[in-house]
Amino acid sequence: MHAIETRSLTKHFRSTWRRRVVGLDHLNFAVRENEVYGLLGPNGSGKSTTLKLILGLYRPSEGEAEIFGMGVERTASRTRVGYLPENPYFYRYLTGEETVRFFGRLCGMRGRRLEEKVAELLALVGLEAHRHRRLAGYSKGMLQRIGLAQALVHDPRLLLLDEPTAGVDPIGSIEIRDLILKLRGMGKTLLLCSHLLDQVQDVCDRIGILHYGKMILEGDVKDLLARREQFQFICEDLTDPARTKVREAIRASGGRIVSEGNPATTLEQLFLQSVRSADRGKAVASGATRPVDLPTAQP
Amino acid sequence: MDTPTPRRLGFSFGRLWTIGRNTMTEVIRQKFFYILLVFGLVVIASSHFFAQFSSAEQIKFIKDFSLAAITIFGALIAMVGTAELLPLELDNRTIYPILAKPVHRAEFLLGKFAGMAMLLLFTILLMSLIFAGLLFYTERQLLAGAAAAASVPGAEVSPGEIAAQILQQTRDFALLKAIFLIGIKALIVCAISLLISTFATSVIFNVISSVIIYLCGHLEAGARQASLGDQSPVVRALMRVIAFFVPDLNAFNLADAVVLGQHIPLRLVLNTAGYGIFYAAIALAVALVIFQEKEI
Ligand SMILES: Nc1ncnc2c1ncn2[C@@H]1O[C@H](COP(=O)(O)OP(=O)(O)OP(=O)(O)O)[C@@H](O)[C@H]1O
Ligand SMILES: [Mg+2]
Questions:
Q1: How remote is the CA of residue A294 from the centroid of ligand 2, in Å?
Q2: pTM of the predicted model, to two decimals?
């Protein structure tokens, strides 16, 4: 049984002048249990539409979708899935804590168990310090974090994340990436849409690329990206004569050097270094706080 | 975690009420609600300042005026508040994460209704309390006045009689019946407005339609009588259609009978309430059917 399976899933939207806009065009794909699947594609290619169809938020024009073998037209299919919408909007007058509690109640949780879960999730997404602030005052990245917390509230086996790192700062993105890996380690299945290809490459087992509502490429990330004929060293403290020796050795063994030079410091590394060294001085920066340590696997 | 996914998910009043409570918070935080509520309370309180010739007239006026104010402000809050419930959820996209949880659409829609209904009942209760306070205050004043008048030698009516008359007018159980039916009427308006919002996205359109239906509902009894006369068959057919779809809202208006001191049988009150609840239930059922199929 697959975590997600779609058959000929199609969605047309009516636009002005009765013209039809194709949101998704006969999509057949499956997400296996306990894998991280990355759905990629240009703007408007149908990624968000796919997620909404899988959640029963949109009705398919044609075809069908299943979550763990259950048709998505049944409300019960949503007991095992958590959803982070793109640009999440929640009630602006609720505080962060109230928001997570509200969604927990909707999932039938209450009492001690709910309160513990709320506290645990707020810590997990690094919003403990802002739990009593209203969402009207949250920044975009903070909303994204609260969205992630509410998606996880009922411990779903499957997570659908629509651009989980949009608007999140680089450190937050790395934390979310680590969180995704951790969730996979806990046996969860993830379907994620993203434009950040580096990240997708890091966390996804498989990817699919949508274009105009059609799947144009699908496969294992490793298979798709492996360039087995090329290899790269990055060295430190290599003297000039040593370099010459290395070049000679490579040529002697029949290899060919395609490129060489100093690897540039990426802006990301620079950003991370400076923020981390500033953080070391102060305990709490202004924005969302870094979680002290991620709680270990849940039951 | 490895318990199998239930095949069916039952209807849950817990989820409905979670939505309902949140709806109350949402409406309470809106400006229109404060404005209408405060205005309603001020209008009721202001009836004290219209001095009348006699004590009986004074009490009648306060009753008439206050019941009308409770009716009108109750209906206004119901119309404006309910019309905005769904459009706000859809425009702000707050509905997506909710329906992505194991929540039935019926629970969502009925939760919205329940929250608004609770708020309406609370509002009507608050206005009624102000009304009761005012009535009590007027009663004390009039009793004091009567006692003073009676102490003047040569008074025609005994002070005990006047006091009894005043108390009979102010401590009138029929007022509760009237307020009860005002509440039921507000619920009908709420259900109609929610039904309209399941297919019309414009709040203005919704409020205008509700107002028209509301007015038709009040004109209905009169129109039915008029149509018995020499109307053309077309007009009569039209009347019958309107009478079928629009509830007879005049039936919920007990103010005249209360002010005139007529006897209002409890049976009549309960029957009327039953009719109102039935009508609201039908409107909600239709709303559910439409919302179930709605593209959100
Ligand atoms: N509610 C809607 N009404 C009309 N058209 C829609 C609606 N939702 C999506 N579409 C259309 O469907 C197509 C796919 O949109 P979708 O939001 O799925 O794209 P996406 O891949 O998520 O893009 P992005 O990367 O910008 O998030 C687009 O052409 C879009 O205009
Ligand atoms: Mg999208």
A1: 29
A2: 0.86
